[in-house]
Amino acid sequence: MSKLWLALVPLLTAMPLAAGAAEITIGELPDNTVWYLHADLEEMRKSESGSRIYKWFEDEVAVEVNDELGIDLNREVNTITAFSDSTNGTVMIVDGPISTATREKMLALARTESTVETRSHKGMEYYFIGEGPERKSHNGDLFDDLEDASYSSFALKGKAIVAASEDQLKELLDNGGKIAGSGSHDGALFVISADKSFVQAGMRTDALDDDGGDNWESNILRNTKQAALLVSDSSGMIAVQAKLVSTDPKMAQAIGGIVNGLLALQAFNSELGPEIQSLIRNTKVVVSDAILSINTVIDPDMVVSVLED
Questions:
Q1: Domain boundary at 140, 174, 208, which?
Q2: Where are the alpha helices (DSSP H) in 118-248?
Q3: pTM (predicted TM-score)
Q4: Can you name the residues that pair with 85 across neighbouring β-strands?
Q5: Is 111's pLDDT higher than 50?
Q6: Does residue 63 contact residue 216 with C-beta atoms inside 8 Å?
Q7: Half-sphere exposure (CA, 13 Å, Cβ side) for 64?
């Protein structure tokens, strides 16, 4: 299962800077969520701008997964939702018409690398996958806590669920795969959404390691509480929105000034191609209180060109 997840990472992380009813909302996240990621591959396949990016993913990743594992991502994966909270660790939910054959192939792959123990919860089958002493919860690593052991289930139709915590997996099975979120509240993570959303992501920046340096990147990290990202379709173009929540309005203004200064410097760089110059012109930076927003639109052909390079 980790191999299948890693096969999807290039698509989810190679976007610049980094729907509908399938999008993730603030009400679906626990109040102690540290990071989240939602990718709507189905929307990407059928939209004008997203289909060109997905074609790259299909040629570079999906074909290889099919050849090596016999799993057709185009047919069997529609959306992927993953998040980690400070209590239960990481959860990953894959939605799509997952076939029995794929389920057996994934379990067979797991058995070649780890011990697989079959268990049951209220008549629903699930699996403990791991080596050594069984743990009750996650290992404390907020970004890699499925590496040593995990709990997985295909019991719900059209879903594959992987969790670091056995209790969390059982709760998801009880709820039909739905996340028991806490809704909007003070300090809740920002969730940006739009029609035809491709990728939504966000995190609390205090989960990142601070290198202790005094450069401007370290200062921005220390003075930012959380960040959110949205990649979506906008009239055939790729729209990218990012929000940073700073520790105070003055810091948000300072960061906005840095970004605007960098954009202004590059706007007169004659060595940049017309596509990059257009990207710079289309980038807007807005500061409201302690929130910095950065918005831009990108030609999908330019995104594909970057990915291919």
A1: 174
A2: 166-174, 216-222
A3: 0.83
A4: 33, 89
A5: yes
A6: no
A7: 11
